[in-house]
Amino acid sequence: MLRLDFHPTGRHFLQIPGPSPVPDRVLRAMSYPTIDHRGPEFAALGLKVLADMKKIFQTKQPVIIYPASGTGAWEAALVNTLSAGDHVLMYETGHFAFLWQKLATRLGLKTEVISHPGAEVWRHGVQASLIEARLKADTGHTIRAVCVVHNETSTGVTSDIAAVRKAIDAAKHPALLLVDTISGLASADYRHDEWGVDVSISGSQKGLMLPPGISFNAVSAKALEASKKATLPKAFWAWDEIIEMNKTGYWPSTPNTNLLYALSEACDMLLEHGLETVFARHQRWAKGMRAAVNAWGLQIQCADASLYSPVLTGVMMPQGIDADAVRKIIYERFDCSLGTGLGKVKGKMFRIGHLGDCNDLTLMAALSGCEMGLKLAGVKLAGSGVQAAMDHFSSHAAVVPQRKAA
Ligand SMILES: *Cc1c(COP(=O)(O)O)cnc(C)c1O
Asked: Nearest residue CA, atom 3 of ligand 1?
């Protein structure tokens, strides 16, 4: 029999950048009885989560919720706004940007990829000036959409989306702006309306602290207009029927009721703290993690200090060290899962997630596992990252509400 409750002792440290650790409050909410998705109680739940998600996306425009992983919401963004053969400009920040481009190609779109000049392609964010120059050169306006990843989960680089919007405007180009914030939303600052994004794409199992299984499109008025003319085949993903039924709190097909309980609970938790506080809490944790990596004398994957991700840190291995061998030791000896290097950086780096249900001490535990594992793998460390992170956390008070002793 497969033991799904395999439990060596204590808690497992799920330090991958998604799925992230799910708070107990959210897990308990999922265990409420499944209700009639056409009944009156369901409508109240549907309307609540739709309203909550607008706050999370910082938008007044429609948010669509799909019973699908993030990949489904990627596809939905494209099929609702584009037609076969349409030319889209995509920016290769890392593995997820690459996968989105592969998906767009399979849908029959003509993709053009821009990437960082030079060798370090997967260590940087979107350079908006390259997009602006490309759009200015597109005098016939054949490019229909610009697709970028906000928080590139394969590298730990968070791109400046407001700068991309400015670049499109500066080029006076009508292309839609489609943004993947699957791992950024609800942990890294994200503003759908203010940044002028046409379709924002997100998923449940990263910053939103839920299990995998739901994903989102936040859409602009311009994207809705485009959806009326877009002819890529769509049925399940079509926004129009969903938006229509959502007006009364329902969906055309069966939504995943128990995950929507979880979503409601997670939104309550995020909004109780306030988004500003949530963003600051991840920035503070990220600084502690980087203090550790710097003290070890290892390189951070993100080469641009202004674009460090608040939700994960990519740690590069010295020449001759296989990052996956290090991860294996940490997993087997210390019951801690770290993110593998994906695609071009496989074996060269690992990723530590600091999103979902964390606190200073769970992150310290993860860093202890990393430090012991790195030493066991024969990595020569310059100093103690654990000590550096302790120094950081003890000298910077937590931003979230703390318990008070009697
Ligand atoms: C996780 C992730 C995806 C893929 O989402 P799935 O839920 O695995 O389908 C896409 N983009 C980014 C940036 C991600 O982090």
From this structure: 70
